[in-house]
Amino acid sequence: MNFGSTITNAGSFVSFTDSDGNEYAVRSGNPNPWVNLEPHKEEIASNEYYLSLKVTNISDKPLFIQDIAPLEISRQFKGYLELGSPMSLWTTLISEISGGVEDLCMAWHDDSRDLFVSPDYMMIGSKRTDNYMFAGFLVDEACEAELDLKASGSFSFERFSARSLFEGIELQPGESISGDTLFLSFGNDPRPILKRYADLLAEPSVSTQVSRKMVGWSPWDYYLGGVTEQDLVDNVNWLAARREEIPVEFIQLDHGFQKCEGDWLTTNEKFPSGLKWLSDFIYTKGFTPALWLCPFLVAEQSSLYAEHPDWVIKAADGSPLKLNGYAVKAVYGLDCSIPEAREWVKELGRRTVHEFGYQYIKLDGANGQILSTLGVLKDPKVTKGAACRMGLQAFKEGMGKDAFLLNAFQFRLSSGIADGMRIGEDVGGRWDGSRIAKHYGERDNFPGPGEVLRGISSTGAHYWMHRRLWVNDSDYMVVRQKGSRSDLSLPEARTWASCVSLTDGLMILGDNLMELTDDRVDIIKKVMPAFDGSAIPVDFFQKRTASIYDLKVKTESEDWTTLLVMNTDKPERTRDYEINLEAIGLDPTAEYLVFEFWRSKYWGLCKEKISVSALEARDSCVLSIRKRTGIPQVLGTDIHISQGGVEIESAKFDTGTNTMTVKTKSCGKEGSVYIYTPEGYKTEGQFQTGNAEISRLRLKADGSSYT
User: Fold this and answer.
1) What pLDDT score was predicted for residue 304?
2) For residues 661 and 682, what is the distance between their CA atoms, to the nearest angstrom?
3) pLDDT tens, residue by residue, 345-366
4) Cβ partners under 8 Å of residue 480, min gap 6
């Protein structure tokens, strides 16, 4: 197969073993006595293709299928991938929580790595030539999938393959099997390709809750598994007293309440009143209960295992396969190839939501252990990926369509099921891992389970999924100060909170709220709730951590751009940034007023580009960029990070009466609106900044109008 000049001499293959344990790999076009391969290539649009491979057992013995690869490009078979530049200048986007954007030269230079592996999808591109290739699996057979890119010893292209993983599924003589369809696309910009892939995954059945706002609080990041019932009660009471300024909806209980894995609705001694009492308490305080679960993990001492020991995944020797638990150190995995086990999962979802009242359920990433290659399912015709997806479907069906399901493992196999998706690893009360004592490891549990820099990285890497497939979850928004299980400085906390708020994913607070100092509470007030729109990374795919985000804001009377600039670059130092107005969709010939939110400072007029000077490492700025009208107009606010999107209904200047009226929304927030007054106009309370006169209007956003 050829695809223009980008891919030449591509093929497909299947790998399998026979009943004697002999291993085989057969490539398309090679006659053999075991299998018949039927590759299929369909051009669905310009530079877009569907690839699939059907495998039929033509022998007289059973075969055990390992991999089905609809695409293989290998130098061994004179295949080549050409992007117009050396492989050392290529960049990849890797799937899953720990994935992201990576320059291959850095991996080669720092780690001598020459193999790059990604589940589900991979983007490969050259930023020098703007040539990009994307390959991503859809969901037909619900297999796990893997893509790999291999370099030779001189770091030139060696091989690329995209494979559905069957892990030994039995194929009897005369039977046929196909893997999941592969979507292949080429272009000069990675962003529309990724959006197209997300739309294809969403086509069969997308969540009905992709537009839902998810704002809440959870104890996990601060308390971890030591949380008590009283801890939850105290924080809920704190939030109830500040409902107007901090508009939280969900209270999400995380690990620490359960007796053991499997007996999920039975609490331990730290929660003596039980889950139903806690749910009722949360409702009486005006919030909605939410719960963390690992429904696919089973402890040996659970009543579930006592009643159904045959429902767990087995090891090769027939004994239960041991996995890692939370409440119990060693647990087993629920075998969802068994229909009765899936019915139990469905009933757990139903009871949690409809009997106990928890309307938002978070499934932990530890559930993904049921996909272990060491496991053996009871039904030999079901892949682990298919069993996992059936288990997720059963749980969601039990919950019902109105309850919100957040999943934290298996992106592709969750599509059409999950309403929200965890897109990054754990954050915590630290900027990065540089201060973690090596003998403790990453989970030293002092400032929490992780760090915020990787949360910022994953937010940019997976932005294209957000509100197409589900609501993205970058993990908890933590702002707590040093001394409260945190190392976060004020600029670091502001940077992370700005990223979470402006990108409009799940916004779940993760601190001990009662310990927060006033300046940290002020951050929360200024970023909540998120504006009804999602900021887009301007520098996506240009570096590992996108650091410039563009949010378009519109009210009844005006529209503007809110721009987030974060200094997350390495090596850490004070940096200058320049952003061309065209890059954020603005007219480079027009003049714009620039106002910085966190410092409440007018930056002056800009044209063609915006310059951010001397931004310190780990710090950020949030800019309101409004087109200059020549008459008095809103410049920005210090009330909400959108700078008018949440707190202002309209702001209009009447040229007949020379009066300006600011009508507020009813959000209960207080602060100042800054008005730009050009030459020829006078206002009360004005002060001079540069060549412009700035008026400051103090108000409360309660639906009132100010003139």
Assistant:
1) 98
2) 15
3) 999 999 999 999 999 999 999 9
4) 222, 429, 486, 488, 493, 511, 512, 515, 516, 520
CATH of 215-293+340-365+386-527, one of 3.40.50.920, 3.30.10.20, 3.40.50.1780, 3.20.20.70: 3.20.20.70
Give buried/exposed letters for 75-109 (b at 16+ CB in 10 A, else e). Answer: eeeebbbebeeebebbbbbbbbbebbbbbbeebbe
Output helix, strand, coil percentages for the chain, rounded to the nearest 5. 20, 35, 40
Q: CA 566 to CA 543: how far, in whole Å?
A: 13
The per-residue pLDDT for range 259-282, each reduced to its tens digit, is: 999 999 999 999 999 999 999 999
> How many alpha carbons lie under 13 Å from residue 648 in its C-beta half-sphere?
35
Distance, CA of 293 to CA of 257 (rounded, Å): 10
390 contacts 374 by C-beta, under 8 angstroms: no
DSSP 613-651: EEEPTT-EEEEEEEE--SS-EEEEESSSTTSSTTTEEEE
Residue 304 tokens read as: 């579930």
CA–CA dist 584, 561 (Å, integer) = 8
By the 8 A CB rule, do 246 and 239 touch? yes
β-bridge pairing 11-18 and 131-137: unpaired
**C-alpha to C-alpha distance for 395 and 216, rounded to whole angstroms:** 22
pLDDT at 687 over 70: no
Fold that domain 548-706 belongs to in CATH = Immunoglobulin-like (2.60.40)
Cis peptide before 529 (omega within 30 of 0): yes
DSSP string, 300-348: TTSHHHHH-GGGBPB-TTSSBPPEE-SSSSEEEEB-TTSHHHHHHHHHH
Give the angle 566-570-576 at the CA atoms, nearest 5°: 50
pTM comes to 0.95
Kindly state the DSSP code that residue 234 receives in the 8-state scheme. H
Confidence band (pLDDT; 50, 70, 90) for 111? low
Q: Is residue 337 within 8 Å of 377, Cβ to Cβ? A: yes
| Residue of 165, 268, 170 whose CA lies nearest to 225 | 268
> Please, what sign has the CA dihedral across residues 295, 297, 303, 306?
positive
Angle, in degrees to the nearest 10, between helices 490-503 and 452-461: 20
Exposed/middle/buried for residue 678 (C-beta within 10 Å: 0-12, 13-18, 19+): middle
Q: Could you say which architecture CATH assigns to the domain 7-202? A: Distorted Sandwich (2.70)
105: which 2 tokens? 């030269």
Give the Å distances, CA to CA, from 363 to 322, 337, 614, 696.
20, 19, 42, 47
**Which of 514, 482, 475, 512 lies closest to 497 in space, CA to CA?**
475
Alpha-carbon distance of 247 to 268, in angstroms, equals 31
- Sequence spans of domains, the chain: 7-202, 215-293+340-365+386-527, 548-706
Q: Which residues contact 655 (CB under 8 A, 6 or more apart)?
A: 631
User: Cα separation of 168 and 646, whole Å?
Assistant: 55
CA separation, residue 91 to residues 25, 83, 167, 187, 543 (Å): 30, 11, 30, 14, 9
Six-digit token string for 394 = 């059963």
**Sheet containing 686-689: order of strands:** 633-637, 666-677, 692-702, 686-689
Return the amino acid letter for 234. Answer: D
